[in-house]
## 1
Amino acid sequence: MTRYDAVEATAYRVAREISLTGLSSWREVLAPYLSTVGTVLDLGAGTGLFTRAFGEWFPGVTVVAVEPSSSMREASGLPMLAGDAGSIPLPDASVDVVWMSTVIHHVPDLAAAGAELRRVLRPGGVVVLRSLFRERHQGIGLFRFFPEAVRALSGFPTVAEVASGMGFEVERLEPVAQVTASSLAEKAETVRWEADTLLRSLSAEEFERGRALLLEAAAVETGPVIDHLDLVVLNTVGGV
């Protein structure tokens, strides 16, 4: 899994974190899976956005955050364990839900990750992903201004590749709308090359050209920026 340095971790908080109001649609779709369970593993917790969100949204749930990057853990200001999808520092059968937000494309060995997830999950537990997949990117407005960033999707898995690679079955798949920014002007102020896997595929010239297009649009367009990421719920094969 990717380990962000201190500069990238700071940029991530500026560019990638979304308000809980903007994420309210995620609260609704996650409630059936998280509101009544005991322990949720926030795997690849980053700067702790969803660790904090789950604590507010589902106060009866214990959230354990695991993050490989020491810089991200420090930037979060939250208690976090060092670890990644291939080496989770938790006992067997200790969590009810594994949550992974915009993480799965950073996992180099899906089979090893799948084995670890099955190890830490209790019987009947599920893996819940919030992610962008190679074949499902039409809901991301970023590509309107940075069309060259599409090439970075070659390194992203498909939904089928994730499920089969980890040895799980897809129980649910649907796009979820979120308010990524209050306006294009806000988006233009916070966009950072170093904070986004897609943007890091761009040359300096491509990034500046895209940012200029974004600023031009922000001067005339109002209203919130709405993007769609996929919710994927994975069950162990056979539901065991």
## 2
Amino acid sequence: MGDTRLEPLVLSEAERLTLQNWAKRRVTAQGLAKRARIVLACADGLSNIAVAARLDTDRKTVARWRTRFLRGRLAGLSDEPRPGVPRTITDAQVEEVVVRTLEETPAGATHWSKRELAKRVGISPTSVLRIWRAFGLEPWRTETFKISPDPLLIDKIRDVVGLYLAPPTNAVVFAVDEKPQIQALARTAPVLPMLPGVPERRSFDYHRHGTVDLFAALNTTTGKVIGKLSARHRAVDFRDFLAEIDLQTEPGLAVHVICDNLSAHKAPVVHKWLLAHPRFELHFTPTYSSWINQVERWFAELQRRCLERGVFCSLDDLKTALEDWIKIWNEEAQPFKWTKTPDQIIDRIRHYCDRISGPGH
């Protein structure tokens, strides 16, 4: 029901200053910043429901961090206290570990190690690692991203995602791409099978037996795939694949094809074919945005379940394996569920742009 008889949450000046620093620092871990904002709002005398509404979270989350702060003060925002030896690390040391991890780098290095930071702060490496885990910090990890420079980025996102979320009536939508240069690889020694306690083992080196390109068209409604193997992926090969899609699609349906900006997809021979087949319409994804093409998700399944550990002693073996895998996939095909709206995607991109264009960048 309501938030009645809540214990008052009163902050000391030092606690309020620390929480304000955590809440407003741009590079502070988002989990810590959110907890700090919750406690500050609770200290303003707001109920859990009111804090949840102000910070766009749920009441249980507010109640949890209110309780933890009242029980453990600043340290309560990092992790549940554990039984055993009494706590010896101060709140100031916890904050120093977090701040140095997020805002500094050691001399001559790109990121902190637990031993370097432990020496600087005056605690054990194990304690540094525990603080990192409590605040979700992993300084040894890095990920890459690419913001599309496409001038029609927003229009293309709305176009492609609109086809996923609200496909046209009397039409079929295909996500299309090529997986080029799939290698027929055979190991130089037989693969040793898995045994209890021992994983499958294979030789490090291998023999190459040629390559093949795979064109794939994923029906975004049914999840079924039309595939075509080709020695190359030129414009004429893409045109021939469109013709294959035409043959396998019910007459009378409009055909919407989502594809990337490869020059072969825009070549005169393709344009000429499209003029002769007006039921086809190509929709191009933004540059550097393969993630928006659902067939890439299917290619990932193909790589993981068929190719990554496959052994192919000839090019024919590889072709047979690909054809068989597509057939098996189609027998139990399920569509990939797309949930993000265009506005959500655009807001996420805007957030990245704000971060990389801020002070110091």
## 3
Amino acid sequence: MVERPGIIAPEIAETYGVSLHTVTKSWSQRSEWPAPVGKRGRYKEYDRQAVADFVRDHIERQAVDLEPRRLYTAQELEEAGIGIKAGTIRADLARERWPEPDDTAHGVNRWYGQTVMTAMTGRRGYRRPS
């Protein structure tokens, strides 16, 4: 099969393992999303490399080097660039989708860097299948 230079939303969804809704209602609504280069059927067509660049730069979570034995608050984790906002960490904790804090002294939830790095390996990162 010959790979077309352009890519449409259903192909983007399949390539990155996300729903069509994610592509059309979330990713493509962002200001950083590439401009269409044409149209194929009822879908706008995008440059394949521009989409790959967008996913790499704005969707994929990049590996972050946290100090394994240092305690971090949710805000410090967001600022460290783990790719998750502090509010999402707190919401996921309440929904039991984030590990319990390693320390709660003075009512402040804190996690060891190693705990966070382990949790991040299980989170969806929208990486292209090999």
## 4
Amino acid sequence: MTKLRTPDTFQDAMTKVLTQIGPAGAARVITALTKRDYSARTMREWSDPDTGTLPTLMQALALDTAHRLAGGEDAPFRDAFSQQLGIKIQQQKACRLALVADSLDFIHKAGELHSALFAAAQPGSSPRDHHRALVEAQQVDGVLRRIRRRLPNFLRPTMSTGSGNTGGTHQ
């Protein structure tokens, strides 16, 4: 049974390399590079999304090179890396935009809460005024909870060597 591979993943890239040069050919490339014996089975494992094993960057470069020299189009590992990088960048941009949207929503809701609190504090205010203030306070609380869930995404290091992060998933 053929396992499905998510397009533009490293496992998909390895599958493309194996299609072009075969598992034995890939093993020869990696053996020549590392001066250690690699088997065709290891090459197939690198294409299997369930094994969790992948070639190193230098091995991926050697496999891309062999793929091209054998007449393959493009460079599967480079293309997969580029696609995944683009996805990460877009996720970070989306997270930043979502944080800005939450900030604007907070300002709007806080203004409505301020108005409702002012009305509720007036002499002769009605139970409806107090109820509106409570609803507005709950809405501000909801926006603050969203902001609190989003902010840690900017603190988690991702694929960098730096101590911080410029954004994260826009959950």
